[in-house]
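User: Structure please.
Assistant: Input sequence and predicted structure:
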Amino acid sequence: MNTKTILVVDDEIKIRILLKDFLEKEGYRVLEAADGKMAIETYEASMASIDLVLLDVMLPVFDGWTVCREIKKIHDVPIIMLTARSEDFDEIHGFEIGVDDYVKKPVKPSALVARINALFKRIEKTNTKNQIYTFDQLEIDPSSHLVTLSGEVINLSPKEFELLLMLIQNLGQVISREQLLNQVWGYEYYGGERTVDTHINRLRIKLGNKGNAIATIRGYGYRFEV
């Protein structure tokens, strides 16, 4: 179940009702605005809870371009622009002022939800990539693929780094050998689960006294413990 809130901005009530019903069935919470002025006011009043804005270009009072610029001044919330216009200039202009995606009308609600879900996944992936994980004296920086222990750099192979990162991102959860093999080596790899064990052993050695944080769950897989 999604817990994210989406602000739907469109002057056509039928479109707002259609999108609201479909998005709520997908688990999203929906706020509505019928014109540009209302959109800005609604966002200002609820910006702490709004995770994405679906924004029509052709709106009364303020058009979508103006609304986008004003909202982006407040906060860099993701914005998907909806429009019935077909000019390439509109799309280019939208990306220039900070639009995250651009969908032309008419759009199937199911296709729009897929675009929304994909956008949220990209955002979450970026946030995860920029996060630095710290456990006592062990620090893992995914963006630079750098691992340090007590300030000293630990030289890990790409696979060792990916294994460590996957275990850390699932802190306290048991990850099976099959899951690790599929995620790190890919489904097309036929080296067998023993490959995972070998790399885990090397990883433990390189982590020194922090190596015992990787616990073996006999007959299943591994778990990273603090």
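The first strand starts at residue 5 and ends at 9.
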